[in-house]
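I'll show a typical protein example:
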Amino acid sequence: MNDLDLTLKSHSQNGDFFTLDRRLSEMKNHIQAFSDEFKKLQTQLQEIFNSSHLKVDRLQTAVVRLEQNQQAMAQEFGQKLSQTLMKMNDRRSIDTKVQEMMDRHQQSLKSFESRMNQMQRILVEKENQMAQMQTLLAEAKSEISRLKKF
């Protein structure tokens, strides 16, 4: 036998049905209050679940968006890096060409200087020859003039 049966038996023996009825009514009210409280908790849990589900969905959407942004940034970075490397290679190529042109120019200048020095030596030789010729000519003139006097 359970407690309720024992309580009913003792009350029925005492003839106190009114008290028993009141106790049963109180117990029903407590059970109803517990049931109402349980329904409230169940409703609150459902609301929390729905709210959490919405938050999880928003977080998933945000994560997907962040991953897409990260992918786009990585791709953009890769493209910019590639462009930068291409520009660097172009710059090196241009630098090499400029250096080759400078070297050729230096060689041309050295060749020109060498030719100029050679021309100056020839010019000096020719001037010396001319001076000797003028001296010889002057001596010949003076010899002719001296011979004319005799």
Notes: The two ends are 186 Å apart (CA to CA). DSSP finds two helices and no strands in the chain. Residues 17-149 form the longest helix (133 residues). Residues 85 and 91 are 10 Å apart (CA to CA).
